[in-house]
Design brief:
The protein is of the alpha+beta class. Helix content is about 50%, strand content about 20%. The protein has a 5-stranded mixed β-barrel. Strands 4-8 form a two-stranded antiparallel sheet. It is extended, with a radius of gyration of 32 Å. Keywords: Membrane, Transmembrane, Transmembrane helix.
Amino acid sequence: MFQEGGIFYNVQNLLQQDYRGVNIAVYALATAGLAASIHKIRPVSKFSKASKVPDHFIRNHEPLQGVYVGVQHSPVRVLIDHRAPIYLPLWHSSKPPLPVKLWGVDVVSGNAVNWLECVAKGHQVTLKPISRDNEDLVSTVLLHLPQSKVKSMETLDIGQKLVELGFAKALVPENIKKNTIESQLAPALLSAEAYAKNYRHGIWSDRLPPLPRHIVLWRKGSQFTGQILVLSGKKLLHILAVVSKGVLIGMKTVILWAFRSSRKQVQTT
C-alpha cells in the first residue's frame, strides 16, 4: 500500500520506531504538570493552623469550605472544621478545627457566643482568607443557612451580623488600600455598627443614652404600618387569585354550554 521511500511509508516507519527518550520526556512533563496542579489546589489538605494555609490561598483569597463547630474563648475565635475537596476520613478526622479571627470585628459580648451556638452550629460556611495572626487565620466567614419552606439557602456574613446585633464592634484598620477585599468589607461593617447604635442593639443599649420617646413610638408605628401593608397586600393577592379562578371557571362553563347547545342543534337538523 505504501511505496518504499514515499511520504506515507516514512511516516509509518517513524511511528513504529520506539523513541523511548521522547516518551520519558512527555511523561515527565505530564507528571510535573500534575504535581504543580496538586500543589496549587491542595485537594487533600485539611488546614488546622493558619501557618498551613498556602500563601497563594491568602493572597488570592481562595474560598475554603467547612463546617462551624464552636467558639474558642479568650480571645474569641470561630472554630471551623475545614473540609478539603477530597475527604480522607482517617486522616482528616484526627485534625483539630481551624481557629478563625473575624476580620474587622471585635467580639465584646457573651451573647455573641450564644447566638453562634444557636444559629451556626453544624452549618456549612465559606471562608475568604485575608491574612494570618500567629496560628489564627484572619478571614471573613459566610454562614449558609438552609430555608426549608422555600427550599433555598440564606447566606450571611457572621462578623457583619454580630456587629449589627450589637454583640461586636467594628474594628476597621485605617488607611485601607482601594480596590481590595478590605475596602469592600469595611463600609458594610461600619454601616452595621451605625445601625446597631441607631437602634440601641446589644451593648449600645447601655453605652448610649436612651432614644427619645417620640422616636421609639414613631419607629413602632412605622413597623406596625409596614406589617399591615404587607398583610393587606397578601390578602389582596389572595382575593385576586380567587376572583381570577372564578372568572376562568365561569368562562369555561359558558364555552362548554355554548358548544353543547350547538351540537344539539346540529343533531336535530
